[in-house]
Design a protein that fits this description.
The protein has 26 helices and 26 strands. By secondary structure, the protein is of the alpha+beta class. Helix 19 packs parallel to helix 23, helix 23 runs parallel beside helix 25 and helix 24 runs parallel beside helix 26.
Length: 838
């Protein structure tokens, strides 16, 4: 391009610019009385209310007034709602097949608030309750606030202001986006293999509002990552077929009370779920952990009722606890789920309440109610092959007040109930001796699980120590079981009475609401009319607790204890060795009958195989129950006003008996498991590897590093069982016939190799984590790392290997069986290489 042409272009641009400038000056003179703010800025300024919310708007009044204009949605936020805390709960309404999630299950929950921002902005902030100040009027409150900035998770232009009492914002794009606060977490997306959010295939289905809550229903579509090898996450049919997944979500925004419920301080002697806050007090000399129980708010209707209750009369609460039964539940099971809810009234009566809790059938014709609405507690029924049920709750993190619960009930839990009942009671209850049990029996099983899950939603944790309050021989006593049941708490994992023998005549085999459950509800839900503070309540509750825990049937045993043999799942009685002996006798009665009790004309032996596996798993439970006695420590939460010690070593004779049981029933080949009439129908092998796997797992558990540390630690006191004694007791039994000419069979040869290799590995052991529950009224573990190379473990292993080597040498000389001789010579070589590496 030549210079003349360039100059021409430049001149043209200059002229154009001068003309434009002159035109702007002319326009300014013409309209000098109008606003000078650019039009883009004018659009962001609030407009008159009637221009935004026109007569065409569909309006729903409630906590937040909601307006719909065509495809746009508006929130009208009252100034009285600003900075009020709101709990937001998001659940699946509809999911895709095969994703492992079900309609009604919770995705996330958080506390939020609407806040007036600078200028014409409205914000949503997320509030995390981790730390707090004891007194909001003190300078410390500001220090805590300065360390807890609340993230802004939503920003909106205020579209209109109504009489200075409410603010209108448009929320269409916000709720039709992939906003983590009201959608899926990154972990959930990863699990479902979700990638790009497809906004054009997503929309707001509806938004409803009520006096205390607002409900937002959205449909969201995502691309799905293509299959990979390996393929993390769930590959659903929809994701595989069309590459996208569409989900329906419901978010409930529930207004929290202005004044939180009074907290009830957590007590480790009573099993409640808890929340914790780090509290900074102006006058305190150290940081305090404020841990408080989760519970529903029950209070009298009026002062007169409160006075009646104080005199010992039962009264109805101002607001009872109600659980609805999902209308998707098969009709024949609904009444049993409802019974499981209603059964808790007997416990609430101990706290002074009548009709405190009830189950109700969902009013299907009431279109104002939604199953996802977080105002309603529901037992949701899932069409799932998962063998489970669970009982969560949504609570106010400031106080522990439970607001609602959606219990998850998977259809295939009935398979689990059948299998439990069969393998634990078929020896004494002929009703369980078939593949499909009668509806009435299944209904009662459903009722028991319903009660257990409702207990969780009332705030109760598992009480794994409850069953240890029952003397083992009482489990065989018909009258005792009819009166007390086989465990003192339905919150235990003490499924059914597997101890009762056929000749005992015991027919009461189910768990029920027990003495502990009644006491725990009394602790959590008693109303103290005259208590002015949480400290006053604590004094009253402590006096009650000290007295109650004198009764073993009212004691709590944590589900997280690493070393107390009284606190175990699936166990029964105060003597796990004796109970397991009785249970084993019943298994040995059941197994030979499996072909008859599982037969079905025209069917394969699949059911026989499944129930054979259940028998083995039940046997594993007995092994586990007994093993925990070895190196066990009783852990009993205590306060200064209670007698006795917090920690006590399990007595020597109990530990010796436990090892004796294992030697007799595990480390002596359990031939009863090898019934050819069963194995020949379900397996091509004779059970050699299965027995070895069972014994190997048992040895690994028994000789685990943390157990060894406890045994070495406690054996410094004379008379306590020691780690060296444990290994000696095992070696003496496992190698009992090593020096005789008698042939050693393949089962024993395998076991001897497994045991020898385990000792060899202990010549160079690694670090191990040792867990204990700290004393005090709190949660958590104390964890310490122990370097096992610097303990007696390698020394004991070396000495024991030398003894095995000497005995194997002697045995090889006299052995007449070829494989036995091979085996013993092999042991000598293995040990020699381990002790004297070349």
């Amino acid at each position: 391009m030549n210079k003349l042409k360039l100059m021409g272009i430049a001149l043209a641009l200059l002229v154009t610019g001068l003309n434009a400038q002159a035109q702007r000056a002319k326009d300014k003179g013409k309209d000098d009385k109008t606003k000078t703010t650019p039009a883009a800025t004018d659009d962001k300024k609030p407009k008159p209310y009637k221009d935004v919310i026109t007569k065409k708007a569909l309006t729903k009044k409630g906590m937040i007034t909601v307006h719909q204009l065509d495809d746009k949605w508006y929130f009208e936020i009252a100034d009285t709602l600003l900075n009020r805390e709101i709990i937001s709960v998001t659940r699946y309404s509809k999911t895709v097949a095969g994703c492992g999630q079900y309609g009604g299950e919770q995705i996330n929950s958080q506390v939020i608030k609407f806040e007036k921002g600078p200028g014409t902005k409205m914000f949503i902030r997320s509030i995390s309750y981790v730390t707090t100040s004891a007194d909001s009027t003190k300078p410390m409150f500001q220090a805590v606030k300065n360390s807890n900035s609340e993230p802004i998770i939503g920003s909106f232009d205020i579209k209109a202001i109504r009489k200075d009492t409410s603010y209108v914002i448009e929320v269409t794009d916000y709720f039709n986006s992939d906003n983590q606060a009201f959608s899926l977490s990154p972990g959930a997306k990863q699990q479902l293999r979700l990638t790009v959010f497809q906004k054009e295939r997503s929309y707001i289905n509806k938004i409803s509002s009520f006096p205390q809550n607002t409900e937002i229903r959205t449909v969201k579509t995502y691309d799905v990552a293509p299959p990979t090898v390996p393929s993390p996450g769930v590959l659903t049919a929809a994701g595989m077929d069309v590459g996208v997944i569409t989900l329906e979500l419901n978010t409930s925004m529930i207004l929290l009370p202005k004044v939180p419920m009074r907290r009830r301080e957590f007590d480790a002697r009573v099993g409640f779920f808890a929340n914790g806050l780090t509290v900074y007090g102006e006058e305190s000399k150290q940081v305090k952990e404020d841990v408080f129980a989760l519970r529903w708010k029950l209070e009298p209707k009026n002062a007169a009722d409160a006075e009646k209750q104080k005199r010992g009369e039962l009264i109805e609460p101002k607001k009872p606890i109600v659980y609805y039964i999902d209308p998707a539940t098969p009709v024949k099971w609904r009444k049993y789920l409802k019974m499981g809810v209603d059964d808790w009234n007997v416990a609430f009566e101990q706290a002074g309440w009548k009709n405190a809790i009830r189950g109700e059938y969902w009013p299907e014709k009431d279109t104002t109610m939604s199953l996802e609405d977080a105002r309603f507690s529901v037992i949701r029924y899932f069409a799932s092959d998962v063998q489970n049920a669970y009982g969560p709750n949504v609570h106010d993190p400031r106080s522990g007040e439970i607001l609602e619960s959606h219990i998850g009930w998977y259809h295939n839990v009935m398979r689990l109930l059948h299998d439990w009942y069969f393998v634990q009671t078929a020896a004494v209850d002929q009703r369980s001796r078939k593949n499909t049990i009668d509806d009435e029996l299944m209904g009662q099983l459903i009722r028991f699980v319903s009660s257990h899950e409702v207990g969780h939603t009332l705030g109760l944790r598992h009480n794994f120590g409850a069953s240890s309050a029952t003397p083992v021989e009482m489990l065989r006593n018909k009258e005792y079981c009819e009166k007390n049941g086989h465990t003192s708490s339905i919150m235990d994992y003490a499924r059914f009475n597997y101890v009762a023998q056929p000749e005992d005549g015991v027919t009461d085999l189910f768990p029920r609401i027990g003495d502990y459950d009644k006491w725990a509800i009394k602790w959590g839900y008693s109303y103290f009319k005259d208590a002015k503070s949480a400290a006053d309540e604590k004094k009253l509750l402590n006096a009650m607790t000290v007295e109650a825990t004198k009764d073993r049937r009212k004691c709590f045993g944590t589900e997280i204890s690493p070393c107390d043999p009284r606190y175990q799942s699936e166990d029964l009685s105060d003597n796990s060795v004796k109970a397991s002996e009785y249970g084993l006798k019943n298994l040995q009665r059941i197994l030979p009958n499996l072909p008859e009790w599982t037969k079905e004309e025209g069917e394969s032996y699949r059911e026989l195989s499944l129930m054979y596996t259940e028998v083995i798993d039940q046997f594993r439970n007995y092994i586990r129950h007994v093993t925990k006695n070895v190196g066990g420590i009783y852990d009993t939460p205590k306060t200064y006003d209670m007698a006795g010690e917090s920690f006590e070593v399990v007595p020597r004779d109990i530990q010796k008996n436990a090892v004796g049981f294992l030697n007799a029933n595990v480390f002596t080949t359990p031939t009863w498991l090898l019934d050819p009439n069963v194995l020949n129908k379900i397996k091509p092998e004779a059970g050699v590897e299965a027995v070895k796997a069972l014994q190997s797992a048992s040895l690994n558990n028994l000789l685990a590093g943390d157990r060894a540390v406890r045994l070495m630690e406690t054996s410094i006191k004379a008379g306590n069982y020691s780690y060296d004694e444990l290994v000696t007791d095992l070696r003496t039994n496992i190698f009992s016939d090593i020096k005789t000419p008698k042939a050693i069979d393949i089962y024993k040869r395998n076991l001897q190799k497994v045991f020898t290799d385990k000792l060899i590995s202990q010549l160079k052991p690694e670090q191990v984590a040792v867990f204990t529950i700290p004393p005090g009224i709190g949660y958590g573990f104390d964890i310490r790392m122990v370097d096992l190379k610097q303990t007696d473990m390698p020394s004991i292993a070396r000495a024991q290997l030398e003894l095995i080597k000497a005995d194997a040498k002697a045995g090889a000389v006299v052995a007449t069986d070829k494989l036995t001789k091979y085996h013993l010579n092999d042991l000598v070589q293995r040990i020699d290489l381990a002790l004297n590496p070349r």
